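User: For a reading group we're discussing how well predicted structures match intuition. Take Phosphoribosylaminoimidazole-succinocarboxamide synthase. Before you show the prediction, I'll give you the sequence so everyone sees exactly what went in.
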Amino acid sequence: MSGTKLYEGKAKILFTTDDPHILLSRYKDDATAFNALKKGTIANKGEMNCAIASHIFQYLETQGIATHFIKQVSPNEMQVAAVQILPIEVVVRNIAAGSICKRLGLAQGQPLKQPLVEFFYKNDDLGDPLITDAHVSMLDLATPEQVTQLKQLALDINHHLQTFFERCNLILVDFKVEIGSDANGHLLLADEISPDTCRLWDKAIADPTARILDKDRFRQDLGNVAEAYQEVMKRVLATIS
Ligand code: UDP
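Assistant: Thanks. Here is the predicted 3D structure of Phosphoribosylaminoimidazole-succinocarboxamide synthase, as structure tokens, for the group to look at:
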């Protein structure tokens, strides 16, 4: 049973529940890119991403990562802990792709020496700009202790996701996470982990376009978008913790 709509984002809607500590997150088929300049839908994406994210949140919990996930309650809905989302998008990169290639002139597909953590200011009006720790502090987006925790948490999540996706025969190129603070001030992994938020390449395919199994197929109009999500879902759900 969902209560009142609290917030509608680009890919999900959050509803209240009878319990003030629990929200309902409903995944949508809507897809956006380039700060919502490009809009569309991906058939069945809500159900696919909800299934993928539920499975991955449960895997991460078994690895000691605290998440907002409580339980999946329908094909496209999960109960989550109510948290205060930090206005920072935390990106972890293992291989150069997307915005870092444009920004630093790196070649697409170039492996990075070590995982890189980047912060982006979650602000649609500004187009989510890249920010440094100094900006985080200046804008009061998080405390210095939270910044230290965020970086470690992001690297820990990357480590566990790399192991997991390796077992799916997928390469984890990069991903974005959002972190929330619960009523006790503990940081929890929130939002979602899915092909909307991760770059995933098929390990078995060398062709740089054919191997893409994530939202880049939608961003770049590469076709077979839903099929790519379906393939990721199949592999993720078949991977037991
Ligand atoms: N990402 C995301 N939401 C955003 C921006 C990025 O989930 O609003 C993910 C994206 O799917 C990729 C990673 O974060 O896995 C790094 O994205 P990047 O900075 O390269 O931006 P993009 O190329 O998508 O503009």
